[in-house]
């Protein structure tokens, strides 16, 4: 079975998102998912260039990442795992 892939999309830079990414990974771990062991995460960063978000989301969708992940994580983080919210068809 292939490793599930989560798409993580942020309007920020990786440096600005360190605490959010740490909390996201902890939420995954609390639910039995560990990056590099039983889950993969594809990160995309807009670095404040909001106009790039649709292109980055399309890229994640084309990589066939998991569109939704039913974990008990805050809704503010859940958006990162649900790229289908951009309605890119």
Describe this structure in words.
This protein is an alpha+beta fold and 89 residues long. The protein has one domain. It is built from three helices and two strands, in the order βαβαα. It is flat and about 35 Å long. The chain starts with a strand and ends in an 8-residue tail after the last helix.
Task: Provide the fold topology.
Blueprint: E1 5-10, H1 18-30, E2 40-45, H2 53-62, H3 75-81
Parallel strand pairs: 1-2
Main β-sheet description:
2 strands, parallel
Structural class: alpha+beta
- State the distance separating the first and last CA atoms: 27 Å
| SSE string | EHEHH
Tell me the number of strands.
2
How large, in whole angstroms, is the Cα Rg? 12 Å
Strand fraction equals 5-15%
Question: What labels describe this entry?
Answer:
2 strands, disordered C terminus, 89 residues, alpha+beta, two-stranded parallel sheet, flat, 34% helix
